[in-house]
Structures are given as structure tokens and as C-alpha cells.
Amino acid sequence: MIFSNLKLNSNEPIYYQIEKHIKKTIENGILSSNSKLPATRELSKIIGVSRNSVITAYENLELEGVVYTIKGKGTFVTDKNIALKGEWNIEWEKKSNEYADLSCYLDTVKSEIPWERGMISFKSISPDGELFDVEEFKKAFLNRIALEGHKILNYGYAQGYKPLIDYLHLYMNKKGVNTDNKDFIITNGFTEGLQLILSSYTNAGDNILCENPTHNTSIKLMKLHKLNLIGVDIAEDGIDLMELEYKLKNNQIKIGYLTPSYNNPTGIVINGEKRFKIYNLFKQYNVPIIEDGFNEELHYNNSHIAPLAAFDGKNNGVIYIGSFSKILFPGIRVGWVLADKKIVDTLESVKRCYNIHTSFLDQAILYEYLRSGAFEKQIKRTRKYYKEKHDFAIKCLDKYLKPKYIWGEYGMHVYIAIEGIDSRKLLQKCYERKVIFAPGDIFDVNNEKTDTLRLGLSRITMEEIEEGIRIISECVDELKIQ
Ligand SMILES: Cc1ncc(COP(=O)(O)O)c(C=O)c1O
User: Fold this and answer.
1) Which residues are near ligand 1 (CB < 6 Å)?
2) What is the largest CA-CA distance in the chain?
3) Whole-model pTM above 0.70?
4) Residue 169 in this model has a pLDDT that exceeds 60
């Protein structure tokens, strides 16, 4: 009997196990074409399961074309089951194109040391989930879905959800940015914003200027677009102005990418005066700027520092990309680009081709959350939380490690350099003692700055910060002795 060797387990749904068994029996040639399967009632009794499970299995197999039913007669094996027999193996690993191969090559997530349970990980700079205001978010979700569920669950517009765009207009105005003649497009986080701009306004081989070090994801995207990265070194107060001018003057730069607040990895926030100088240099050499404003909300001293986009007034030289990924919830993947109307018009078409639009449900909930006032409270809480961790980490670094320098304002991470140490070797040593961090070379456009590392603080406890830094310092001592 073909079902006598069917052993049911409790991990998979019963109907699925029946389906698998029937397919296997056909593959093995035990059930031949047009042979009749037991009636559903009969089979359910034989194997001791509900009749519904058998009916579901037969229905699914019929949908797949494995069996057919004749009313009043029963269910039979089709004669088109050749596909179930014999192997068909395409060697996909040999078929990927240059774009995919480069993406895989650049994908540090796959090649870096992974997190394991029990480790102290300074690797991440994603927000601490404990901080998320889940109750307010739930309320926002319920309110919006009750108000316009029929709309936000349908297709929306590539440019984005109008109430959110209107909110962001005012939000950016409050930051001092003139939004006349400009428009917004809502994107899947900062990352998609940058991707849309690079795909629309750069060609392979173009020179793109950026701070060095800079955000690893941005480096990956720029390299994936085959751009020539012209890095400008960073000093304690941000990008080096002399080098910036030299490079703007002597290279045909297509566009610049800058993170004036909380450059990742250094955490440096450039002051207002220097921002003005930077803006004017780009203007003087007629090089547009992509400004990454991802973390501005974290400015702790409450004195707002205007983004570069604010200096641009009614001009159109700055393309601003915003994101609430760090201050709110990265999981909802909502960011925005604010730029000249003509740029947004182009990005809209490109986005429509790529992915139609960013989830309207997510945009609508975010809008409701923002307008409810929960946002302001959340920012205050978040700033305080990260500031305390940051202050404590600095104390521990001074006590145990005494690095060559420690950079970064009260963000979610610190960036340090340790004299005479290769951070890759240090990472290997620390890994053996269950401590990991991000080695500095992944943020360098030429994979240099090997004596630096970034310590992400957002998701670890004070105890872990102290213990982790103590272990790192012991590993540094060991490496120095060797
Ligand atoms: C420099 C920088 N920009 C932007 C982002 C946020 O990207 P997204 O909005 O795609 O999550 C990050 C996140 O780490 C970042 O470090």
C-alpha cells in the first residue's frame, strides 16, 4: 500500500507531507500515470488524519498539474509528471552577470565575521529596539487603517503619500531649507534615494567626490555604479578644506556626496561656519552636492545646525536625502529626496520602473506617528539614551585603551585610531574573546585607514561597553608584544 510507509511529523503541515509523499511515490515510479488515488475519506482513515488535510493536499496537487479529478470517479495521476522524474540542474553560479558579481564582491555582510550568541558586538549601529515606541506606532497604525485602509492598501503614487510629503515640506522648512521650486520623492530609506540619484545622474567612469572615510553602503553603491571615488580626508572637525578645494579644482567631479552630521564612521558633526565654506567651494567649482542628512535629529545641544541644503536657498545645487532610520525605525524603510522639481520628476519615473512606489501603508503610518506628536518625545528620549552611552564609552576608552584619537559627537558610535595596530588583526584576536567591531578599512574608499575602527554603541549595555573595551585593550597589548 503506497501510504503504509508515510511517517507524519509534527513540524510540517499534514497536507504538505501528504503532497510530498504522493510526489515522491510518482517520482519513484510506484504510482504510474492515470492510476487512481484513494478516495479522500478512505485515505484520511488509513493514515489517521482529518479529511480536510487530504482534500487540501489533493487540491494543491491538482493546481500543480500533478493529479486530475473526474467528478464521480475520483482523483488520478496525470501523465505529465515527467518534470518530477529526473534532475534539472542549471548552474546558476556560472550565469550571474557583472553587476551581480560586483554586488556579491562588495557585500561585506556576507564576508565579515558574523554575530554569535554571547558576543559583545560593537559592529551594529542600528537603533536599540527597546527604544521603539511600539504603543504609539500601534495607535498610528490603527488610526490610519481605520481612516483610509481602502486607499493605503491599494497601489499608490511613485512620488509618495501626499500627507507625508506635505509634512516633510514643513519639516524641512523648519530646518531652514527653502523648498520653493523643489519637490520630494519618498524612497525606501536613504539607500534607495542615493541609488535613484546615482542611476539617473551619473555614468560609469564619472568622478564622484566624497569624504574619506564614509558610509560603507554608499561606497558600495558608488562602486556598483562604476564611479571613480575621489576621497577627501577628514580631520577632527570634518572634511579637510584644502584638500577639498584641490580636488574640486583638479578633477572633473560630476557630483559630491557628503554627510555633514554624524559622518559614518567618524561621527563628526561639521559646524555651521565650516558648512558654509564647504557649500561655497562646491558652488564656486559648480559641482552639485548630494547631502546625506540621515541623522541630523540627533544633534544633542539642541542648537540646530543648518544642513547644506539651507545655504542653497532658492538655488538647486544641493540634493538632500533624509531618513528616519536611526532616530525612529529602520524597518519601515521610509526616506526622502528633496531636490529641484526637474530632478524629482526624473527620479519619479526611474522609481516607477524599479519598484512602483514605497509602501503606502508604511508611509501613512509614519505620517500618523509624526503628526501625533510622538516623534518629538521619541527624539528627546533617543538623544538622552545615546548620549549617556556615548559619554560612558569615552570614559572607558580613556581608562582602558587610550587611543591615538577618538572622534564623534554624541552619536550611536565612536571612531578610534590605535597607533601601530592593524584593526583586522585586532578583530581576529577580539573575536576569539567574543568581541567584535567594524574595522576601519570598510569605510575607506581604498580600503586603507587600517589602524582605525568603529565601535557601535546603540545595541549594547553599559556593562558590555566596559567589558568589551577592556577586552579590546587587552588584545591591543597582546598584539603589541607579539
Ligand atoms: C551615513 C548614513 N546614511 C544613511 C543611513 C540610513 O540609511 P537607510 O535610511 O537606507 O536605512 C545610514 C545608516 O546607517 C548611514 O550610516
Assistant:
1) 125, 189-191, 215, 259, 264, 292, 294, 323, 325, 330, 335
2) 87
3) yes
4) yes
